[in-house]
Specification:
single chain, alpha+beta
Length: 170
């Protein structure tokens, strides 16, 4: 007859795990990984800088700890994607963030009444818990699957102008 502790140890050794818990695979040290792999992990939120986003007191914004963490993760992913200005939706409110300096530059109290929001090249929607609502799977975890990237209109118009597509209409 087995005792209770032997029974528990045999269950642990069986490989059965609670729902949602998957075995982790060892990750190679950073200096042994390719740049492409590191960039992919940074843009999906797997690697984070750990740096906070500065929100000036003049913006009068209060975020929960989870929202602050979600905002920092969103800025990390936006930086990895090459974005310069990020629009972060927080329910009815929004923030614009200068990605290179990691500083919030504008607080929009009611997005529905704000009119057009211009001069951004990426956007993300965070819920009250600071999550983007992105789903992840075992093959490719993503903290920021909902990041929306779009080249700025100014860049597109400049390229068209340089190509001679835009001309003087008379």
């Amino acid at each position: 007859m087995k005792n209770v502790s032997s029974e528990l140890l045999s269950r642990l050794a069986s490989g059965v795990r609670p729902d949602g818990i998957r075995p982790t695979q060892p990750v190679a040290p950073l200096d042994q990984r390719s740049f492409d792999a590191l960039l992919k992990d940074a843009s999906s939120g797997v690697i984070s800088s750990g740096l906070p986003v500065e929100i000036p007191a003049t913006l009068d914004v209060t975020l929960s700890e989870k929202q602050s963490e979600g905002l920092a993760t969103a800025v990390d992913a936006a930086a990895a994607a090459g974005a310069q200005r990020l629009l972060v939706y927080l329910g009815d409110e929004a923030l614009t963030v200068d990605v290179p300096s990691r500083t919030a530059t504008r607080h929009i109290e009611d997005v529905r009444e704000a009119g057009p929001i211009v001069d951004v090249d990426a956007a993300i929607v965070l819920d009250s818990q600071g999550s983007s609502g992105a789903t992840s799977d075992a093959e490719e975890p993503s903290a920021l699957g909902a990041l929306i990237r779009n080249p700025s209109l100014q860049t597109l118009l400049a390229a068209l102008d340089d190509a001679g597509v835009i001309g003087d209409e008379k």
